[in-house]
Amino acid sequence: KKRSSESSKSSELEVVHVSEIEVLFDSKKRDANTDTRWLKNRRVAVIIVNFEDEVVDCTASEIQEMLWSGPTSAQQRYELDSYAHVSFDNDPLVSTSVFGPITIPLKLGSETECRSAPDKWAYLAEEKAKELGVIFNHYSHYVFVLPRSDVIHRKLCKWNGLGNLDCDSNCRVWVSNCEKQGVFMHELGHNLGLRHAASNLGLQGDIIGYGDPTAIMGNMWWNTWSDFGFYFNAVHKFHLEWISTDMVLQIEGPNDNGVYFLAPHNHLPANRAPNTYIMVRIKRPDTKPGEEPSFYVFSYVSGDGMFLPDRCTVHLDKGKFAQSEYITSLQNSESFVDVTSRFSVTQEAVSSHMMRLRISFGCNLKPSTISLLSSGIPLAGSEVKSSPLSTDPGVPQILFSAPGFAGILDYFVPVTSQANGTSDKFLFLFPDNFQNTTYQKNMESKKNSHVIVFNITNNDNSICPPTIYQTNFGVLEPGWEVACDVPELLVSPRSSCFLSCRLTLPEKISNG
Fold first, then answer.
1. 227 phi and psi, to 5 degrees?
2. Tens of pLDDT, residues 30-89
3. Alpha-carbon distance 345 to 282, whole Å?
4. Listing from the earlier edge strand, what are the strands of the sheet with 423-424?
5. Cβ contacts of 416 within 8 Å, gap of 6 or more
6. Treating both helix axes as pointing N-terminal to C-terminal, what angle do 74-81 and 181-191 enclose, rounded to 10 degrees?
7. What's the whole-model pTM score?
8. CA 329 to CA 347: how far, in whole Å?
9. Neighbours of 241 (CB within 10 A)
10. What distance lies between CA 236 and its chain's CA centroid?
11. CA 493 to CA 360: how far, in whole Å?
12. In the 3-class helix/strand/coil scheme, how is 188-205 assigned residue by residue?
């Protein structure tokens, strides 16, 4: 690049030696219909605008550092979040692109409306800036920094910032909160064509325009959680084509049931592991005629300081010209279920570089897990063995040892039978040689009543209906009694519960 020498006014070449080069983005591999206007550097001029009665608190150097020269500048964040597709630069031909402060001949307290006022302020500021030698045709974006004033925030405009929507040149941005980098990034996002990042928590229909707690385009959270790293959500990256088609997994239906892997979208795609995606999209079936189809979007971010890291975030994408809607975020073992489409997405595991998702269309019945947590029966020990006791290989086994009882064992065999997908049954068996001296001593002390606690886990996927677990012990021998705290349990998919039963034994027990 050319630069002026500090020792003379002549130009000289600065030569930079590079040891190696990594290609982060190849424009020749883009889709043919890519809007190339976003691939160029977009120069920004910042004008600090004072009024006769109110002035801007931030200095030019503070704004310069926030936007360009600081270690976490807005320019760096845009380049990282866009995977080097977009860079908001200052003019390299001048020492700074932050001009002013200049004072326009107006009193902010005398303004009576906000509809046309921002354009009027911009026009007056541009005329003053031209007198300072600012060449506006060197820039694509003009950012007007206004005083942090109650007149703007509460009386007239009721915003922290404003930006022209979807423009290529002569784009204007107004910022009245110069201390918040996110305001600058948010309004420049409008210049790129982005709408707000809203929330629709749990799809209840209560849509909050700035409610996405993760996204730069949903800015209502900045003042509360300013220490967290915010980012452009995956929906916005998709519509700006920062995420290419090979990074997107499109799920169509039951034929796509399976396990898939995501890479965090706040890392460079070049660093993602093989066979991973940046986002998953699943079409909603309830699109009305004439409407653009909407999609569920699943993605995640990782890293210290990020907001909601390592959680699968679920958004609703209603198209490029609509707000994105944040629905929820998942942790490991949690699922998102759409009962209309009859599918579930479950976050099974996550690390700093990969997330495992299980996608299931329709009800997927799985054997329940039934285990013995505790037992007052003298023979039951705490150590779980894996030796099979049943000749039926399809029956899961749990074997409890009885330390100190010379090989005398009792065992618990859960028998899984999905009768019409609604009922599981289990069986508790005693060995033939249950009668022993320890039991006789307990009988002499009248300790013939024992509490048994089971843990029952419904492993069906989240789209399935709850399962009924019946505590039916059939026909018992005379003197044997079993009473549980409830006759049956209704357990939701991917949930667990406890069942407590009391077993009363007769004074004498016969083998068999």
1. -80, -10
2. 343 444 444 457 899 999 999 999 999 999 999 999 999 887 899 998 998 999 899 888
3. 10
4. 423-424, 467-470, 488-491
5. 367, 368, 395, 396, 424, 425
6. 50
7. 0.69
8. 10
9. 17
10. 14
11. 13
12. HHHHCCCCCEEECHHHCC
